[in-house]
Amino acid sequence: MSKYIIFPYVGLFLPLFSNASTLSTNFFSHSHSNIAPIKQIIDDDWLEPPSPDADIGFSQSLLEVKLDYNGYSLSSLNRLDYFLTANYDTALAYYQNSRDIPLNSHKPYSISLNFHEQKSRGIAFGYAIDRQAWQASFQLSYWDVVKFRNSNLNGSITGNNTNEILGELTLDENYTHKNFLKRPNERSWNTSGYGYSANIAFEYIASDTFTLSLKASDLFNRFKYKMIGNTQAEINTKGSFVDNEGFSSFRPLLSGIESERSFSKALPISLNFGAKYTASNIDYLFDFYRRANTSFYLVGAQYRAKHATIGIKYDIQNQVPELSLSTEWLNLLIALDTLDFKSAYNIKLGLNLNLHF
């Protein structure tokens, strides 16, 4: 039976079913966007307009140090989660404004934006069961959230030839540190939160040649924040004035409430369903993979040599090749839709180091 199980969120190839003691370090990161290249979003330097189907971007990363012993496991965890949902109008308006292009090519721009940022550290306890025809494991995690922001911006805007933005927007934002209107924290709100999550994995060996697997991360999760910063505001350009040179201009009007409130939120569930057919030393693979409410379909194969397994998969919809290498003590994974890192819309990286004793 397989010694390793691919656990799509906790890490890459975690040795949950080994009878020996294992100390492992695991890193896994998956970033995807159909709005703009990932690095351009991070650097806030968009070089090209968004595609017409632009609506989502996410980046999830996790670092784990884990000890396994007789089926039990204890882990120290750090995770970073970003989620961005928007519509084409919002992405186009942001791109044009960042490149100093007047917002007069598309009227009006319907704005709809949700941004979620969360940085957490935690501990986890797990247990695995190994039977002849099936294997199962679960992991329970407790999280200390050290940074959080959830922003919602909605409304309608237009522009003129002098690059002024006109319209009305509503903002609803919860935060522990950074916020849209740069409100300072004068010790008036809390800057942390807490949460819990549960991961499960199941593998069924139907025959000597056919295996099915199911993994779910953040299957049950909830993060809670007590009296963190909150801003609810309306922004409009109903106010106008005449500047010193006699030109009519617009001054945005801002009204709303800055306060503190308690807030809770669940993260999207990540799922991975896999099927494997074995013929000689080659495994033929199919994966259905869902993360941040986005689906991925992968097909591929892996060759099992004496001391290593080399694999390749292909993301059918996003046209992304995925390469992997697995040995007893080292596992690597990389997936890129282009060799030009600055232009990549899909980036997946995995590293696992094992020490058996």
Automatic annotation (TrEMBL):
Taxonomic superkingdom: Bacteria
UniProt signal peptide: 1-20
Keyword Signal appears in the UniProt entry: yes
Keyword annotations from UniProtKB, A to Z: Signal
Protein name (record): DUF5723 domain-containing protein
